TrEMBL record:
<dbReference type="InterPro" id="IPR025110">
    <property type="entry name" value="AMP-bd_C"/>
</dbReference>
<comment type="similarity">
    <text>Belongs to the ATP-dependent AMP-binding enzyme family.</text>
</comment>
<protein>
    <submittedName>
        <fullName>Fatty-acyl-CoA synthase</fullName>
    </submittedName>
</protein>
<feature type="domain" description="AMP-binding enzyme C-terminal">
    <location>
        <begin position="52"/>
        <end position="127"/>
    </location>
</feature>
<dbReference type="InterPro" id="IPR045851">
    <property type="entry name" value="AMP-bd_C_sf"/>
</dbReference>
<dbReference type="GO" id="GO:0006631">
    <property type="term" value="P:fatty acid metabolic process"/>
</dbReference>
<dbReference type="Pfam" id="PF13193">
    <property type="entry name" value="AMP-binding_C"/>
</dbReference>
<keyword id="KW-0443">Lipid metabolism</keyword>
<dbReference type="InterPro" id="IPR042099">
    <property type="entry name" value="ANL_N_sf"/>
</dbReference>
<dbReference type="GO" id="GO:0016874">
    <property type="term" value="F:ligase activity"/>
</dbReference>
<keyword id="KW-0436">Ligase</keyword>
<keyword id="KW-0276">Fatty acid metabolism</keyword>
Length: 141
């Protein structure tokens, strides 16, 4: 097994696997995956799941791709930095994108900074690599 120690750490004493996924259960008992626990950050004492913010960003017609990470903030603990790839042929204004998000998200969830990129860093399978974005966000916040 390639990740034997990490797998062992994810198993409980009675054999359950802690997947690292954050989820909710609705009144009808349906389970909805929200995000990964390791991607969640706390802003102003509130839990923020980047997937929710990313979904709001993707509603903007000039956004092709988006990834959100928490960055250190002196007052709120962490604040949201959105890394965005504009859609081809668009002229995306970061300020208007912040206003767009402010209309759709709770104040503590709305990004405080937008960084425009040509592409998001990805691994060989296409998954967005958030670690380099967090490193970059530390300087952007």
């Amino acid at each position: 097994m390639r990740c034997g120690t990490r797998t062992a750490a994810a198993l409980t004493a009675d054999g359950w696997l802690r997947t690292g996924d954050a989820a909710t259960i609705d009144d009808d008992g349906f389970l909805t995956l929200v995000d990964r626990w390791k991607d969640m950050y706390i802003s102003g004492g509130e839990n923020v799941y980047p997937a929710e913010v990313e979904n709001a960003l993707h509603e903007h017609p000039a956004v092709s791709q988006a990834a959100v990470v928490g960055a250190p903030h002196p007052r709120w603990g962490e604040s949201e930095v959105a890394f965005v790839v504009p859609a081809a042929g668009t002229d995306l204004d970061p300020v208007s994108l912040l206003e767009f998000c402010a209309e759709r998200l709770a104040r503590y969830k709305a990004p405080t900074d937008v960084v425009l990129l040509d592409e998001l860093p990805r691994n060989a399978t296409g998954k967005v690599l958030k670690a380099p974005l967090r490193e970059r966000a530390t300087g952007a916040a």
